[in-house]
Amino acid sequence: DEKLYLASYPGAQISVYDPKQPIHFGNQPTDNPRDLGRFDKVSFRPNALIATPDGKLWMGSAPDYGMHDGTLVWYDPKTGESKSHRALQPDTSPVSLLHLPELNQILVGLSIEAGTGAKVRRLDAAFALWDPAKDELVWSGDLGIEELADPVALAPDGNGLVYALLGRGDQIQSQGAPYIRPRLALINPAERKLVDLAWLPEDYGPLGWQGHHALQVGPKGIVYGASGYCVFRIKPGTCEVERVWQNDTPPPPRKDPVWLTHSTPDAIDTVGPIIGNQLHFSTGWRLRALTLPE
Questions:
Q1: Is the peptide bond before 33 cis (omega within 30 degrees of 0)?
Q2: Distance (Å, rounded) from C-alpha 158 to C-alpha 35?
Q3: CA 163 distance to own-chain centroid
Q4: Would you say residue 207 has pLDDT above 80?
Q5: With the C-alpha atoms ordered 5, 6, 12, 14, is the resulting torsion angle positive or negative?
Q6: In this predicted model, what pLDDT tens digit does every residue of 35-79 receive, in sequence order?
Q7: CA nearest to 272, candidates 239, 238, 231, 234
Q8: Concatenated DSSP letters of the chain
Q9: Would you tell me which of 35, 46, 141, 151 could form a disulfide with 12, CB atoms 3.0–4.6 Å apart?
Q10: pTM here?
Q11: What is the mean pLDDT of residues 200-227?
Q12: How far is the C-alpha of 149 from the C-alpha of 61, rounded, in Å?
C-alpha cells in the first residue's frame, strides 16, 4: 500500500507512515505516522517485522518485563484484524522472521530471550515453520544443532536454502546465558535439514547487542553478515566467509556483559539494509555506509 510500518519499543506497538503526507505523530486517523497501539498485553520488545504476500504484517516480540514466552502477532492493515500467538516453544521468543515463497510458510528463529529483568529458563534455541494461511505451527526443532544459540538473523540464498546467524548478544548474556561464539548455518527448510554449519573466525568477535538483521542479501544475491566488529560476505552455497570490513580487534570476553560500544566506537550496534552496492550500519553515534566489493 506504499506505506511504511514501524514496530517500536515499548509495548511492541505498530505505527503506519505515509511518505506522501506531512509528518504529525499521533494515534488518530489523520495523524502520520499513526500509532496503532499494542496488540496484546504480553508483547513488549519487537524483534522482527515482515509482510507476507496477502498483505498481513507479522511481528515477533519478546515479552513484557519479568515475563517469559514471547509472541508472534499478525495484523491486517486492510481490515484492522489481528491475532497474537504466545510461546511457539516454551520459554522462547521469536527473534527473526523470513517468508518462504516456495512453501508459503514463515521461518521463525526462536530466541531464549525473556522479558527484561527475568532470567533465561533454557539454553537451546529453536527454529519453527508457521503456516500463515492456516495460522498454525507446522514444525519446530533444532535441526540437530547442538548448543543451538539464538538464530538472530535469516537470509535466503536464492536456491531454496536459508542462512541463519547463530549467537548470543549482550542482551541474552545479561539474562544469564553464557557466551557462545557465533556460528553460521545453512539450512533447507523444505526438508527441515541442516546443510552446512561453521563457527565464525574468532577474530570476528561476538555479536552486537542483539544481532538483529545482521544478514542481508546484496548485489548478485551474495549474502553479507556482521558480527559486533566485522562485516563479512559468504561464499554461495557454503558457510565459508571472507572479511570485508573491520577496524578493531575484539577485546577479551567480559564477565559482565555491557554494550560493545563501551569497548570501542567502531563496534557495530545495528545492521541496516543494503541499498545499491552499499551496506548501511551504525557504530555508536555514527551511521555508516560501506561500499561492497564487486
A1: yes
A2: 35
A3: 12
A4: yes
A5: negative
A6: 999 999 999 999 999 999 999 999 999 999 999 999 999 999 999
A7: 231
A8: ---EEEEETTTTEEEEE-TTS--B-BSSTT-BSEE---SSSSEEEEEEEEE-TTS-EEEEEEESTT----EEEEE-TTT--EEEEE-SSTT-EEEEEEEETTTTEEEEEEE----TTPPPS-S--EEEEEETTTTEEEEEE-TT-TT--EEEEEEE-SSS-EEEEEE--HHHHTTTPPP---EEEEEETTTTEEEEEEEPPGGG----SS-TT-EEE-GGG-EEEE-SS-EEEE-TTS--EEEEE--SPPPPP-SS---GGGT-TTSEEEEEEEETTEEEEEETTEEEEEEPP-
A9: 46
A10: 0.96
A11: 94
A12: 17
Calculate the dihedral angle through the C-alpha atoms of 241, 199, 138, 192, rounding to the nearest 10 degrees: 80
Provide the pLDDT confidence category of residue 266 given band limits of 50, 70 and 90.
Answer: confident
Please give, one letter per residue, the 3-state secondary structure of 263-294.
CCCCCEEEEEEEECCEEEEEECCEEEEEECCC
Determine contact, residues 15/6, Cβ cutoff 8 Å: yes
Is residue 128 within 8 Å of residue 88, measured between CB atoms? yes
Q: Given pLDDT bands bounded at 50, 70 and 90, which one contains residue 259?
A: low
Those residues with Cβ within 8 angstroms of residue 286's Cβ, 6 or more apart along the chain or in another chain: 265
Residues 7-39 pLDDT 10s: 999 999 999 999 999 999 999 999 999 999 999
